[in-house]
Design brief:
- The chain is of the alpha+beta class.
- The chain contains 8 helices and 8 strands; from the N terminus they run ααββαααβββαβαββα.
- Strands 1-2-3-4-5-6-8-7 form an 8-stranded mixed beta sheet, with helices on both faces.
- It is elongated, with a radius of gyration of 38 Å.
Length: about 325
Amino acid sequence: GTGDGMASAGEGMEAGDDLLSTPKAKRRRRLTKLFSNDEKMQPEARALQAVHAKLAAEQAVAERAAAERAASKKNGALMAAWIQGYQHPNMAMDMPTAASAPESLASAGEYYVCAPTPDDVVRLRQLETEFVVDHCDLFRDETWGAQLGPAQWCSLVNVIGHHEQAEQAIASIVSGALPGHRTLKCLHAPSGKDPEIVGYVHIARTRNLNISHLKVQREHRGRGLGALLVAGALRCAARMGAEAKAVELVVLAKNTPAVALYRRLGFSVQSCRRKRLEGRSVFVEWLSMERSLCKSSLADFATECELHASKTCHGRDGGA
């Protein structure tokens, strides 16, 4: 009856208490409590982990910035040393006499273009280092610009970085030891003063006539000397017996003054290619430009360029 039922229930409760007090049951309760605490702490742990990740990312950014500043400082010092290593303060030239003066290939005002002599090699190399620096300055606003050293800038514009080796190469061209290659100088020869080399142009005979380097000293820009150097190069090529159907050159798209000059002289863009900087995932754009000679000769084009230079030199109305 009823009494037996109550007795049975009491006995069952006692039996259940015995089960809950076993080592296995106690271990289960401890684990349950532990996991419950972990679940309560999980949001806090995630927040802490996020804070640590943010701090680590900021630290990595700061370290990269510090490394870039160190690299910029180092490369800036290397560039300055490279430039300083080729400073020749005493570059005054002997005034050429009527008998020794080189034949002028093109002239405008107090400037004329002619063939260099072995004594000009050092000055030509000095201008070539400025040619590299000119291109470096085009990218001074780029974050990666300051991180490049002399070797990378020289590679970009196809200039020999080692000064002594560069002198030897220039001397070979000046002496005529490299057939098909010519370098011309631009002289500033004001009356009563020593003449000074203020620019140069290098040409090569390939399938057509190629203008590979053209440099005008900064202090003498705006006088049409770029066009004057092109005129001298064309006449030099004509005297070499070149029968080119076009005049070709390659220029950085970012060098807008040079691109504008070549357009004024009748050059047009044939293609645009991207060149990767050595050791960097950075690309710069080069324009391949061409002036067809189908309707004119080298001599005619030279006269056209010289006229442009004369007008600019006298009028100072722009130009390279």
